[in-house]
Amino acid sequence: QHNATQHPRKEREENNKTISTRCYVDDKVSKAAWLNRSNIIFAGQDKWSLDPRVDLVTKGQLEYSLRIQKVDVFDEGPYICSIQTKQQSKTSQVYLIVQVPANIYKVTEDLTVNEGANVTLSCLASGRPDPAINWRLLNPSAEPLDGEEYLDITGIMRNQAGRYECKASNDVATPDVKYVNVVVNYPPTIKKTQSSETPVGRMGTLQCDATAVPTPEFEWYRDEKRLSNAQGVNIQIIGTNTILMVANVTEEDYGNYTCVASNRLGVQNASVFLYRPGTGRDINGSAPVSQSLWLLLACFACLFFKC
């Protein structure tokens, strides 16, 4: 039979590419045309379409193919190669599906929140087919999080701070990836203190280490009096750590010192001791005052109930 040899099929093409929808005829064909739905694109060699991106590919007398440059989503649909012989007419149809790579067009900007706040991160993406959106917090485990376009975090904690990754993918091209940096503010917690067992005449070193966001400010006190570098001591602050150095310790220097860590969200203090050798204090320092108070109450309760 003398007809087009192209069989009905679907063609999937990526956006902005050039495609050729092929149709082959033989020398018995008297008329041929290309149509998009009911619109004539070519009738024989005559171009009816006004679209400059569309042209014919004719190699010899056997090929009668349609070429579309810079394909976009509006080109999607059925394309029909229609031929006429003396005996009959035949058509062959191709359905063009235009695919568009995933593209993230809007994502939450970097943000800073207080611990305990409710946070929603958004990641909006386009593409054909519709892209799947996945979230991860890029900590050491980087496990997937339960969220799509919107990631809801209820009562965010300090260990949920970090860099969040949003990935949009639809298998058309490489996934699109964007990032959101989340800073979580929280009040200071004094996590370590270091007391000092120092003989008279030697240098005593007291240390206090806290964790907080924003970075805490530190102060040192002795008997309710704030200490400064002008009072015979040297105070160093390095990030979340502070050191109080007492040069040439005297009997008057022995006793309790208070380290205070503060930021705009809160304050915490702890007792640190400078003591003479042999008095038996714990050289690793004391717990924060709030914890020491509970220990003191527990001791009184134990005495009352004759533990």
Coarse shape = rod-shaped
User: Quick one: biggest sheet?
Assistant: 8 strands, mixed
Give the averaged pLDDT, no decimals: 85
End-to-end distance: 107 Å
What is the helix content?
A: under 10%
User: Low-confidence parts lasting 5 or more residues at pLDDT below 50?
Assistant: 1-8, 283-307
| Helix and strand element order | EEEEEEEEEEEEEEEEEEEEEEEEH
- Percent of residues in beta strands? over 45%
Quickly count the helices.
1
What's the count of strands? 24
**Rg, please?**
38 Å
Q: How is the secondary structure organized here?
A:
Layout lengths: L8 E6 L4 E3 L9 E6 L2 E5 L2 E2 L6 E4 L7 E4 L8 E8 L4 E19 L3 E4 L4 E10 L3 E6 L6 E2 L4 E4 L8 E8 L6 E19 L1 E2 L6 E10 L3 E6 L2 E2 L6 E6 L2 E6 L8 E9 L2 E10 L13 H16 L3
Parallel strand pairs: 1-9, 10-16, 17-24
Antiparallel strand pairs: 2-7, 3-4, 3-8, 4-5, 6-7, 8-9, 9-11, 11-14, 12-13, 12-15, 15-16, 16-18, 18-22, 19-20, 19-23, 21-22, 23-24
Please provide a written account of the structure.
The chain is mainly β. It is built from one helix and 24 strands. The chain has one helix at residues 289-304; strands at residues 9-14, 19-21, 31-36, 39-43, 46-47, 54-57, 65-68, 77-84, 89-107, 111-114, 119-128, 132-137, 144-145, 150-153, 162-169, 176-194, 196-197, 204-213, 217-222, 225-226, 233-238, 241-246, 255-263, 266-275. The strands form four sheets. Strands 1, 3, 4, 5, 8, 9, 11 and 14 form an eight-stranded mixed beta sheet that branches. The termini are far apart. Residues 1-8 and 283-307 have low confidence and may be disordered.
